[in-house]
Every structure is written in C-alpha cells, then in structure tokens.
Design brief:
By secondary structure, this protein is an alpha/beta fold. About 35% of the residues lie in helices and about 15% in strands. The protein has helices spanning about 25-30, 35-55, 70-85, 155-165, 175-185, 195-205, 220-230, 245-265, and strands spanning about 15-20, 55-60, 85-90, 100-105, 125-130, 145, 165-170, 190-195, 210-215. It has a five-stranded parallel sheet, with helices on both faces. A four-stranded parallel sheet has the order 1-2-3-4. β7, α5 (about 175-185) and β8 form a beta-alpha-beta unit. α2 packs parallel to α3 (about 70-85). The longest helix has 20 residues, at about 245-265. It is elongated and about 60 Å long.
Amino acid sequence: MRFRYSQRRIRRFDVDVIHVTDDQLDILLGTHGRSDWCRLLMALAFALAIRFRKVALVRTLLPSPEIRTSRAWLRGQRILDAATDVFVTPDGQVATPDSSRTVVIPYSHFRERFIGFPRAKQSTTGVLWATGAEHATEDIARPSQRIDVAAISDGALAHRITAAELVVVPKIDTLADLQMVFVALSLDRPVLTQTHETLTSLAETIGPRWLFLSQEPITSREVHAAITQTREAKPEPPPDLDAHDPGLIRNLYGETYARATHRRRRPKEPPHGAPL
C-alpha cells in the first residue's frame, strides 16, 4: 500500500481510500471554524466527489465531548454517514450509525517505535504533563514538568517519559491524546487521565497500577493518589499490550481498506422487480 497524509482540506481524489478520524473531519472538509450551513454544503460536495470518483471513505469514530444539534449540522452529518463505507471503533464502545458497516480495530502500541532510543533514569519525584497548550489543567504543573507532544522529537519524548514516575494526560479530546496514553504505556510508565469510554476496558486488561482514571478534572490530589498507589504496589510485569500489536492492527486495517474499496466499487443492485 502507498499512503499520503494531509492536514488540510482534501482537493485531490486520486486515491482508493480516504481514512479520517472524526475529530479531523472539519479539516478534511475545509469547514473548521465556519458555519454549520457551510459545513452542510461542503459535506454534500465531498460526498458527491467521492461517489463520482469511486473513492471509499473510512471513518474512525471517537467519543465526542461536543454535542451539536442544529438542523444544518445534523443534515451534514447524515450525508457523511451515508457516504461512509466503513466505520472503525477502537473497542466497540462507541455507537455507530450502522453496525453492518462497522469494524472494531484496537489502537496500536508503540513499543517498536522506540527501540534503540536511550532511556533516562527514572526520577522518584518526576511527574510529566503530556498535553497541548489548550488544556488549562496544566496550570498546576511546573513548566519543567510539561511537554507539548506535537513539538518534541521521538528521542526527546522517550527520554522525558522514561524519566518520569507518572505521565499525566489531563484530558482525552482527540486521537493525539489517546495516542499519548499508549506511548507512555509502551514505555512502561503509568498514566493518569480523565475517565474515557475507550480507556475503561483497557484499564482492566493491561494489568493493575498502569492506568489511573479520574472522574473529575485532574488536580494535585489525583496526581498524589496515583503516585501513592504506584509506589505501594508490588512490582508488576509491563503493561499487557498484546491485543494492540502493530502487526495485528496493520492486517486489520488492510482488510478494512479492501472491504471499503470493494463496497464502493461493486455494481449497485437494481431495485426489486426492476429489469436487469
């Protein structure tokens, strides 16, 4: 397979499959920050374009903290849902518009990505806040404890994470936030974050003391409690991430793209009773 990545409105449709996470839909449509009626028109134009060019659409659905109910937004969403060939969810917890077009593909761990990178000596007082600038809860952390994961190299990221006793991801708003949780776990560091649908089952399967979920916004109290539990726990094996093996995930995505392409290109069945 050959891949092309984009962080702007899509204008070229010379591909077999477009795969987008729902938190990036407005970027793909070119409607970020624009009105819901504009989004409706752009969604319609996009759906017609991929239908005409027989390009399959795969969407990864994430629990959304934002609920929009305007008529224009809902109509645009229905157009996009009808144009989607396959919906992907990470654990089956997120409701999708059509179960017959839905597959479950877990998130991948990142252990192989950091092989060969030097690791730091773990600090007994180190708490690392891995966040973007939009998260206000980082105000309780000292500047030296914060990192913007979008502005740091893999080597520096591995060094900062392995030096920490606990990694805090204040909120799960985007796919990047979820990926940060898996990066920390892949480097064998416990994570504290807010409760999230996708992470509830993960916390139960990876083993005790690796993932701490808080119902409330993260404060120094939650940080102290997580560190205390980590220190008092008996030595544990690394997080069990076998179900998130990159090879397994890669194969599942390959099958999903093939399924989406087949669905998009197969001849449409005539209405019942219509002549062939």
